[in-house]
C-alpha cells in the first residue's frame, strides 16, 4: 500500500508535492463543497488500486469536515456514482 500524503488541495503519493507519482486534486467551492477536478497515477503505479486509495482519502476528508463532493474528474465521478458507500458525501445532483 502506498503512503498517501495530504497537501493543501490534494492527496498524493511520492516525496515531491510538485511532481507526485500519483495525485487527486480538489478545490474548495463555497463553504461546504469540494470539487474533485483531477486524478493521476504514473504508469508504473497503475493497477495497484492507488487511485481508489486517493479517492478514499478525499471522501474521508470531506466527511471529517462536513463537506459534499462534486466529482468533475471522470474517474472520481464514475467511482462515486457506482459505490453507494460514497453517496453520503456525493453532491445530490451526481447520484
Automatic annotation (TrEMBL):
CDD domains: NAT_SF (cd04301). The keyword Transferase applies. The keyword Repeat does not apply. Residues 1-95, 3-91 form the N-acetyltransferase domain. Keywords: Transferase. InterPro entries: Acyl_CoA_acyltransferase (IPR016181), Gcn5-rel_NAT (IPR045057), GNAT_dom (IPR000182), GNAT_YJDJ (IPR031165). It holds the Pfam family Acetyltransf_CG. PROSITE patterns: GNAT, GNAT_YJDJ. GO terms for molecular function: acyltransferase activity, transferring groups other than amino-acyl groups. PANTHER family: BSR4717 PROTEIN (PTHR31435:SF10), PROTEIN NATD1 (PTHR31435). This is N-acetyltransferase. It comes from Oceanobacillus sojae.
Amino acid at each position: 500500500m502506498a503512503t498517501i500524503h495530504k497537501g493543501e488541495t490534494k492527496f498524493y503519493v511520492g516525496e515531491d508535492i510538485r511532481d507526485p507519482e500519483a495525485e487527486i486534486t480538489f478545490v474548495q467551492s463555497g463553504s461546504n463543497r469540494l470539487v474533485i477536478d483531477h486524478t493521476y497515477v504514473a504508469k508504473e503505479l497503475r493497477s495497484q488500486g492507488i487511485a481508489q486509495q486517493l479517492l478514499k482519502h478525499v471522501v474521508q476528508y470531506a466527511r471529517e469536515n462536513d463537506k459534499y463532493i462534486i466529482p468533475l474528474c471522470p474517474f472520481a465521478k464514475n467511482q462515486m456514482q457506482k459505490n453507494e458507500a460514497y453517496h453520503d458525501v456525493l453532491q445530490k445532483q451526481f447520484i
